[in-house]
């Protein structure tokens, strides 16, 4: 079912409240997306200023998270939403905490960028970071897109992409661990890269979580903790 | 005015040419169609009451169109829908309270277990002893609390001796959660109780004849939230022994008390599903629109 | 101050004036109505209060067997034909020994009521040993002398007494040999040609018997009709027709019912004239529409929720009506019936047609003995020539009004007492 409107409630205040929650979520999504992009840039270009900025942006994201949660609580208390409205509120509260975690992970990457800029660049791993980073960035963008447009199919694509990210993450880990065994002197610097990769992988997982919420929101079906095939079946079926 | 009404008006041909009644921009719901059949799960195994293709009309106006529905044993089914959707009319068919209205015509199959409700062999008095009813407005008789509860058993000769009657009165009042409040003043008038107590008295009066099914027609609409909560709790307890069909305007109430929910719209049964499903993921868009509050 | 407030203020004075005018009209109407009522009551009480008392004269009586022509006071035959009037005459002549002319003596005798002789007979009958004895007694004065004594200076001038008679009466009054007593005969005897002996007990009994018949017929019939029409009758043309006609019947002039009674009950069924039974039947016809309409209103006022509750418990139609509707509607029905009765109590016209206008001295003993009723008695007395009947008429009206007020009060009290709240 396409559900592209918040309107048509008998109560216009209800419409406005839902619209406002969605707008704030999109704003938060935009901020977090920029955080991720900036953190990656800071890491890849060893830009400590940019890394500082990313960490400072954290504040704003946290405030938005609290604000959206308050708005959702208010709607729950005052409007007793049901059906799609209820699903929207549930999905938003969950997506918000995922977004906040993504913000945290970005901050972690930024911290690694700072460290790397102090300790010197890692001898290996930037290719993997760039590659997985691009993937994760796309996932986050797509999932936010899917949320904005209530697009379950796109959300399904995001979930599928997460599997690829996981695969790539594992192979990157293997190669970096091998490298560390070969060159123990670089362990501390490579570890920074590994932590960053780990953070990126977490961002991918969180994006997938949000995508699952989008599917719950649109289709009313819970697709958490099931295989990709089952998920596909539920969404298409 | 909602779209469906407008469509109806249009179909009836009035103001057909000059006045387009549907403003497309303002009415994004104009795609709405009634489902051919009720969506969801209207039928259950081994139903207590079974209805197939029920039509009800008042004179020339058809109030209910082709409703097919099962009511399972010991379940609470809530009937929801906008005003005038026929839910009360349907409820009143279940114990033939519509009989009192001369122009009311009922057709279709209506069964209580294997007995046809509208069969000539079916005694309406017996039916109403088996299918009791609680009304919107608390309506205790202007008699004592005791006499209110004892009325039904006396009517049907359920108790021959005084102590038997006393026992029935006490158990009924206990089941209705009213015993502790009124045991010292059983002979005070029932009309002197508070609204919520009166409604529980009415429920006690109804269950005093040990019906199999209890119909409730908006039993809490005249009560305050505390009294409502008590009645809802009571409904929950009653499911152990009775099958309950409840009409309510409060969707939260339907969500709280019922196992299944049936959504009526302009005389049609749109959707029947588990209450949880109806309130989180209704199948039909009309249901969705109603329970999310998108009707004017 | 905003513009709206200004505008509103301008109209305020006008609106308040209109309100005061409206109030004043209402008060004036009430004052007019109340003063008319007070005038009526004042007039009736002013005219009628004197009828509740009458004057007696003290005379020394000798039960002389010769004058009485009675030898044995135990013989009822002799008592019946005894010349008690002679004894009374002798007594008054003894009081005024100087009156000797035959004409004057007759005038003197006329001062005493004819009932004086009957009183003596009753006393002698009760105590035969009085024969030949002497006794001082208070005897009733004739209505003309009574009126003279009751009247003011101006009324005394117009009294129907000769100058001689006036002198005698004044003499008796001055000597303290007259006194005013409560008029017991007003409530203990039937009609009479002599105002001082006329009473309304006969009429009251007639009214009571008539009302009993009316109540016994109209209440059950009216309620049964109302219940059927309200609860059981199908809604179709025929019942609509009946409904309209019941309402029409309530508007039919009452004399028409009298004519109906005359034509059907007297001529066709050959029922006796002047009896409360026929009167009651005729008044039943007249009050039935009132009873039916008020009973239907009372039944309609029973909340449908009560009916639904009983029906929902499996009560049959009949049980719903008997257990719930009837008890709840009863106060209203009773009120309606009592008001209908009050109407019937005050009705004259239909009873004139069936002969309840006869002059009947005997007290009625049941619904089948000839009788008259209070309003007809008033009608009869109002047409009588004797001056004293004016006061009696007003007195009877007061009694009738007292009955009506009592009945209406009863209706109000019943309604208040039996009314249930739900």
Structure, described:
Chain A has 237 residues and is an all-alpha fold. Chain A has one domain (12-236): Phosphate transport system protein phou homolog 2, domain 2 (Methane Monooxygenase Hydroxylase, Chain G, domain 1, Up-down Bundle), CATH 1.20.58. Chain A has helices at residues 12-45, 48-79, 83-119, 126-149, 152-182, 187-219, 228-236. Chain A is globular, with a radius of gyration of 19 Å. The model of chain A has no long low-confidence stretch (mean pLDDT 88). In chain B, helix 5 (162-175) crosses helix 7 (195-207) and helix 7 runs parallel beside helix 8. Chain B has helices spanning 3-12, 87-93, 124-130, 145-155, 162-175, 179-182, 195-207, 225-238, 251-257, 275-280, 285-291; strands at residues 39-40, 47-58, 61-72, 76-80, 104-112, 115-116, 131-134, 213-217, 243-247, 260-265, 268-274. In chain B, a hairpin with a 2-residue loop joins strand 2 and strand 3 (61-72). In chain B, the strands form two sheets. Chain B has a seven-stranded mixed beta sheet with strand order 1-11-10-4-9-8-7, sandwiched between helices. Chain B is α/β, with parallel strands linked by helices. Chain C has two domains: 54-181, no CATH class; 201-418, MetI-like fold (Orthogonal Bundle). The longest helix of chain C is centred in the N-terminal third of the chain and has 46 residues, at 3-48. The model of chain C has no long low-confidence stretch (mean pLDDT 87). In chain C, helix 4 packs across helix 6. Chain C is mainly α. In chain C, 37% of the residues are buried. The chains are: A mainly alpha (237), B alpha/beta (296), C mainly alpha (422). Chain C: It is a multi-pass membrane protein. Chain C: Residues 204-411 form the ABC transmembrane type-1 domain.
Order of helices and strands of chain C: HEHHHHHEHHHEHHHHHHHHHH
**Average of pLDDT of chain C:** 87
What is the rounded distance between the termini of chain C?
49 Å
DSSP summary, beta strand count of chain B = 11
Can you count the beta strands of chain C?
Answer: 3
**What is the alpha-carbon Rg of chain C in Å?**
30 Å
Q: Helical amount among residues of chain B, as a percent range? A: 25-40%
- Please name the CATH architecture of the largest domain in chain C: Orthogonal Bundle
Biggest sheet strand line-up of chain C: 2-1-3
Straight-line distance between termini of chain B: 7 Å
Estimate what percentage of residues of chain C fall within beta strands.
5-15%
Task: Give the overall form of chain B.
Answer: globular
Query: Could you tell me the strand content of chain B as a percent range?
Result: 15-25%
**Assembly classification:** heterotrimer
Number of alpha- plus pi-helical segments of chain B: 11
Approximately how much helix is present in the residues of chain C?
A: 55-70%
The largest pleated sheet of chain C is described as:
3 strands, antiparallel
Shape of chain C: extended
CATH fold group of the largest domain in chain C? MetI-like fold
